[in-house]
Fold each of these.
Amino acid sequence: MTALRLTHEILTVRTAHPFAIARGTQQEYRVVWVRLADGDGLEGWGEADPSWYYGETADTVAAALGVYATVLPDDPFRLEEADAAMMRALRGNAAARMAVSAALHDLAGKRLGVPLWRWWGLDPSRAPRSSFTIGLDTPERVRAKVREASAYPVLKVKVGTPDDAAVLRAVRETTDRPIRVDANAGWTAKQALARLPLLAELGVELIEQPVAPDDLEGLAAVRRAAPMPVLADESCRTAADIPRLAGVVDGINIKLAKCGSLREAQRMIAVARAHHLAVMVGCMIETSLGITAAAHLAPLLDYLDLDGALLLARDPFAGASLAAGQVTLPTSPGLGVTTR
Ligand code: MG
């Protein structure tokens, strides 16, 4: 068996609109396209979507890949060993490890000749509908974005500013579609509790990460008072974070860029289920390469938020379709992603 050869390329992608959340605004994102060649003409692909919030940039990903390239097993099916070897060589760097994990799964699936969802024994028709995100903006521009997103059946509205009430009222006046809100840790527990009556009045169906990641007391207080489910995102990176969230929130939001591998994402789903927690899979701003890796998990989930590639002005890859929030998984082997 010949050694797997890892190469990478940094891609700059832009969102159609500047994308604002409680922590800041951005329109240009650098993601990393990882390719693993096996010497027999097959190639596995993965994407790293680094976030400065979790301490990564495209440059730290590139540096980490230099380390990971030297510790990979020759056999792409040795996925557990690959994860462990990367962790031993260099901890953290979840986005970088995730790209390698996706590329190994893609390559193994191509060798088997089956798509990942089929290898994992899943039924694509079980996938929930994905939400479409409306970033922070003025009430007027939010109205326009909601109208522009008329094809998407569920909206996730970013909140966490003094304009929250005006923005949410503007959304509700524009549409009767289900609304979820994500504060990205932008509220204090007191602010979150004060906003609950309005969220209930507007029929908000779910609240994501109302308060700071370490404020588990605040999360629990919001959950006790809220008539709708409260999910942890920034408070939950890997399976080890889940037990302490049981009884504190109603569910978790998994992101591949936080947890570092497709195997870890599957462990998180199992651990969350064992603690009676609902499970969402979300995303960063990513291309269809990264989104498709996450989309293969969709049949296992309660909630889906995989709009990252839909927000791009131009998506360099084609894979899982999220048109109208409906997941259509590829039927070609591995991830099933091609360049556009
Ligand atoms: Mg979130």
Amino acid sequence: MSPAATPNPLRQASYQASAHDSAQLLPDTGREVAFAGRSNAGKSSALNAIVDQRGLAHTSKTPGRTQLINFFAIDADRRLVDLPGYGYAKVPPALKRHWDAFLSRYLETRESLAGLVLVMDARHPLTDFDVQMLGWCRAARLPVHVLLTKADKLSRGPATAALHRVERHLREHGLAGSAQLFSALKKDGVEPARRVLSGWLGLEAPGGRPRE
Ligand code: GDP
């Protein structure tokens, strides 16, 4: 079957459950891919573009409000996980500590986690949040794919410079990772992102290898 005729199984994603701490996570079976990003980076818009559904992940109107981990089922064995993002000064320190502890532990210990999609605003990549997440991915030996989104707001030169900066960071920090430009608005980069997710979830290559 030609790639053009292949349906996008990610379109089947549907809301499954929410959690606000480790105890409420779904059972650690099958495979999942998580999305993270500093608040307002464009994570919800990227997730919606990739699954080709307008309102699956809710775009944030209130930066820093209490957030949940949302699970979206693709099928019985595969999930997408929308992790909380933060980064605004108004997030209370106790809440930031809660999410820091949760995120580092989740990335380190979650057996079903095949990879992390880290969404960055292409105009401001590698924020403190991003660098911290990448550090945890390296410690956990977890593959990471960086989406440099809102690329439509940049012309070609600065967009390429941002991509090279992130690729260099991944290389220099010994991360198993890749990066690409993305625009939820223009739907640019959606197919390459889907390919990474499908590979991690074993959707195209049954038995495909998750984390090392
Ligand atoms: P989140 O907080 O990371 O989930 O970010 P959202 O997806 O809610 O997006 C934050 C803001 O950026 C919203 O106003 C979106 O409309 C806007 N946005 C998200 N993605 C893009 C994009 O690719 N291009 C442009 N121009 N704006 C975007």
